[in-house]
Each structure stands twice: as C-alpha cells, then as structure tokens.
Amino acid sequence: MSRPTIAILGAGSNIGTAVASHFASLKFNVFAVSRTLHASSEGIHRLQADLIDPSQVTAIFDTIQTETGAGPHIVVYNAYGMTMNDPSAPGYPFNVPLDKFEHNYKANTLGAYVAMKEFTTLVPSLPAITSNSHPITPTFFMVGNILPWSPLGMGTTLGTGKAATAHLIMLGEKFGKTGARYYFGSEVLEDGAGVLVGPVNGKAHARFVEDLATKNIVKKEDWVENLRFFAKDGGEYEIYKGENYVWNF
Ligand SMILES: NC(=O)c1ccc[n+]([C@@H]2O[C@H](COP(=O)([O-])OP(=O)(O)OC[C@H]3O[C@@H](n4cnc5c(N)ncnc54)[C@H](OP(=O)(O)O)[C@@H]3O)[C@@H](O)[C@H]2O)c1
User: Fold this and answer.
1) Pocket test for ligand 1, best of 108, 110, 200 (most atoms within 8 A of CB)
2) Alpha carbon distance 54, 78 (integer Å)
3) Is rRNA-binding included in the keywords of this UniProt record (predicted)?
4) How far is the CA of 23 from the centre of ligand 1 (A)?
5) Separation CA 107–CA 50 (nearest Å)
6) What CATH number should be reported for the domain holding residue 215?
7) Higher pLDDT, 42 or 47
8) In 3-state terms, what secondary structure has residue 163?
9) How far is CA 58 from CA 23, 64, 65, 82, 98, in A?
10) How much distance in Å is there from the Cα of 238 to the middle of ligand 1?
11) Are residues 76 and 50 in contact, defined by beta-carbon separation less than 8 angstroms?
C-alpha cells in the first residue's frame, strides 16, 4: 500500500523539523518546505519555496502530487512573518512600514489561503489510507497563537495575519464539503498564557497533529476556533480547556 503524505509549509529547525521527523518515523512521505534549503535527513524531502508567492505554493502542491501520485493528507502551515512595532515611534501601534505589513500578511495569510485552496481541491482525490491502523482524516493544521484573541501592541502584523487565517480555518471547518478537518492550534503554557519566552515545543506539535489526523480526538461538536494545548514532558501534550487568554510579562 502506498504511504500517506504530509506537507510542512515553513519547516525550520524547530516545529518543522520535529513534525517532519515524527511523521517520517510513522512512514509518511514527508515534504518540508522553507525559503532556504535546510539539511535533509532520511525520509524527509526538502523543497524550496517562498510561500508569500501564490504560484510557488501551487507549485509545491503540484510537485507533491507528481511525486506521490496523490497529494498531502496532512498540511501543517508553520511559516510566519512578524515585524515588531516600535512603541516609542509615532502612530503606535499602526507604525509598521507598509511594505513589512504586506510582506508579513502574505506569509501569515496569503500563503495559507493558497495552501488551503490547493489542499481542499485535491482532498476528494486522496486515496483512503491508514497510519498504524488508524484511518487518516485529511487535515489542515495552522500553527497558531493567542494573538487574535489577546492582542499585543508590538504584534500588529503577526496578530493580524493569524486572526485572518484563523477565520479561513473556521471557514474550512464550517463550510468545507470534503470531510477534511481544519484546525488553528496554539501552544500555550499550563495556565493558558501565550508562549512569549523560549521556543514552542516541536515534539508536542507533532504528536498533537498526529492525534488530530488519525484519532479523531476533537469531534466536530467539540471543535473550537483556537484549539489550545500545552506541552508536557517527553513531547506529550494536553488540550487546554480553561478560559485564560493572557500574555505574562
Ligand atoms: N503558541 C505561541 O504562543 C507561539 C509562540 C512562538 C511562535 N509560534 C508560532 O510557531 C511557528 C514558528 O515556530 P518555529 O519555532 O518552528 O519557527 P522556525 O523554526 O523559525 O520555522 C519557521 C519556518 O518558516 C519558514 N518561513 C517563513 N517565511 C517563509 C516563507 N515566506 N516561505 C517559506 N518558508 C517560510 C522559515 O524558512 P527559512 O528557514 O527558510 O527562514 C522557517 O523555516 C509560527 O507559526 C509562530 O507564529 C507560536
């Protein structure tokens, strides 16, 4: 039987590499996309593209379809763009240079939109396939944060882009007709606070995405706009069920 496929769009040294390695160990075809080509390791196909360019996003899906004969059963959109606002400059918090705002919007939202469009179009043609005997639900996972619900003055471009993409995810989940599932998933701390200091946990993201796609751990009726989870020892995770939307300084 052919293998299932995952595409990680924005695959750097942290979440991208952790998700890629995890799914390679599950015998997926793994395509890891970044602007610059990172060193490859066994079972991981590295592809170069700038996701701010819609034609390059489409080309990635074409390449994956050609190489696998199908397309990705799972897409993780991890690329992001952020320009810190200067609190001491006039116009704060609307003082990000326009070219930066536009560039960040393209990385956070436009690239994700094109990826969702390509993914959703090909889902009906995906072969039914299992991973460790679990049927795989076609899944689009947007790596999120709490900014859409808890803005920071310094995070105008990232928050705007994530908020818009959270809306696209909501559209996919509520109105999609293919049976694919769409998630905006955000790592938080145990008390619900956003992860301000230190890297987010790549292994926990990997396990979470696997369980979403193969174990139906979030049923349609339990779906929420921002699916928050916190990392535990050994790359485990737990879904956060509290109400806190805070950034701790
Ligand atoms: N939950 C939270 O509170 C929280 C906190 C921090 C971060 N995050 C989220 O975590 C994600 C990133 O985490 P990470 O640690 O994995 O970051 P990372 O290691 O820097 O990976 C990001 C990757 O995205 C790629 N990328 C960026 N723009 C791109 C573009 N235009 N085209 C193609 N690739 C592009 C980068 O490519 P290059 O390697 O070529 O530069 C890099 O490989 C982001 O979505 C961020 O918003 C969430």
Assistant:
1) 200
2) 16
3) no
4) 18
5) 9
6) 3.40.50.720
7) 47
8) helix
9) 23, 10, 11, 23, 26
10) 22
11) no
